[in-house]
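Q: What would this chain look like folded?
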Amino acid sequence: MLLSNDVVVDLGHVVGGWSGHISLVIGGRCKQQLQRLGATYLKALGSPETAQVIEEPHISLTRAFYLQEHQIPSFMAVLEEQLQAREITVGFGEPVILANEQRDRGFVAMQVTRGSEEVRRILEMVNIVMRRFGKGEFYQDARFHASVVRMDMGSLQRMREMLGSQEIISTRIDTVQCVFGNRRFCIALN
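A: My prediction, written as structure tokens:
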């Protein structure tokens, strides 16, 4: 299970498996701006109990995946060796509504509108490691974004009607984060 904002994503049980997720960390002022934007959307929606602001906005580079506990150190070593990237600058704008693969939860997300090629280069490095460990790659036609609100599908249509364009928020990203259960690993982009 993957924990995020007190929401449990059930991936099914894999004996001895640790669910993992790799993402780019959004910090500082941009993180605060995205959280405020999420709070604004939530308030406009009437703050239903079935919706919440994303506390740790990030740019996903993998779907959830499993590793056995003994594989985690070598996976992290290979990932760190593979990530020969410098910090990047990304800009967010153009709010979109997205749904998860199970179509039981929706998100308001800010699309990456600047720096997507740099994010794609980092994704390609991550995909090399995922293939080496026999794990699935991220979406072929990935839409890089940072989610700001999570909601049930009932609130989705109302939110879709409220969205308008937003100014671009930009930030430097210098960390790739890999989470396995309650373990968090960070790799600096030099």
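The radius of gyration is 16 Å.
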